[in-house]
Amino acid sequence: MRLILLLAVMMGLRAEVRQGDVIRVAGPGESARMNGRTVRLYGQADGSRLGLMPVPAAEKPGDYALEVLDASGKVVRSGDVEVKDARFRRQNVLIAKQTAALAASEEETRLVRAFLQAETEGRYWADPLGLPLAGCMISPYGVQRFHNGIPTGNVHGGWDQRGGKGTAVRAAAAGVVRIAKMFELRGGTVGIDHGQGLETMYLHMSGFAVQEGAEVKEGEVVGYVGSTGRSTGPHLHWSILANGVAVNPAQWVKVKACAAQAAAGKKK
Ligand SMILES: [Zn+2]
C-alpha cells in the first residue's frame, strides 16, 4: 500500500516537518508565506483552498513562522513549523571528466526555469501519485553529490530508479506536458504540469511517447529509460516539484531501495 504522509497544518498549532517535505496549507486565504517564500492557495472542487509549501532539502533546521495572507497581503492566520534535519547522506559518483563537464545550455536553463514558475489554476493531480516505473531506487532524494570525490555543491533533487534502456516511463499523475525535449545536461526530458503548483520531471530518457501540449492521465507512457545527458548508465531520474522546489518523493510514493543501497543503509 502506498502510504501518503502529507501534512495538513492546522493553523495555530505547532507542526514538525523534515527537510524535503511539502506542507499542505489550507485556506481561507490567498497565499502562504514561510521563510521568505510565498505560494498561492488555489480553489478546490469542494470550495476549500489549498497551497503546497515546499521545505527545500537545504533548508536550515529550526523554527519558522508559516503565515496565511489575504488578497491585500494582510496576515490572517499563522502557525509555527519546526523543520527537522532529515540527515541526508553523501554520495560519490564516479563519472568520466567529459560527462561531468556537461552543462545546461542557455535554452535548457530558460525553458526549465519558465516551467518551474508555472501557476496553473486547474488541478489535474489527485492523491496518491503513481510510480513512473517499477525499478528499485538506486539513489534517494537529498544526498549531497560528489563527483569523483569533489563536492558538486548540489543535493540530489529526485530519485534515481533502475530501469533497462527502453523501459516505459509513466506519468506520476495527470497533467499537461510542458517539456518534451532532448537537453544537454538533463538529456531526454519530460516536464509535466499537474496544476496548482505541482509538477514532475523525468530525465535522461532515450526517447519520448508524448509531445509538448499533450494532456496525459496518470500511468500514461511519456517516454523511455535511457542514459542521455549527464548520466553514467541507463536509469530514470525523476523529481516532484512543489511550486518550483524539488521535494522528497518519499512523502508521496513508496519504492524499494536496490539491494546494494539497502545494504549500505544497514551498515550505517
Ligand atoms: Zn538522479
Key traits:
five-stranded mixed β-sheet, 2 domains, 268 residues, mainly beta, binds zinc ion, Immunoglobulin-like, eight-stranded antiparallel β-sheet, 3 helices, 9% helix, Glucose Permease (Domain IIA), disordered N terminus
Describe this entry's structure for a reader.
It is built from three helices and 23 strands. It is globular, with a radius of gyration of 18 Å. The protein is mainly beta and 268 residues long. Residues 1-8 have low confidence and may be disordered. The chain starts with 6 loop residues before the first strand and ends with a helix.
Give a concise summary.
This protein is mainly β.
List the helices and strands and how they pair.
Elements: E1 7-9, E2 14-18, E3 22-26, E4 31-34, E5 37-40, E6 42-43, E7 49-54, E8 62-69, E9 75-84, E10 90-93, H1 97-100, H2 106-116, E11 137-139, E12 144-147, E13 150-155, E14 159-162, E15 168-170, E16 175-183, E17 187-195, E18 198-205, E19 207-208, E20 215-216, E21 221-224, E22 235-242, E23 245-247, H3 259-267
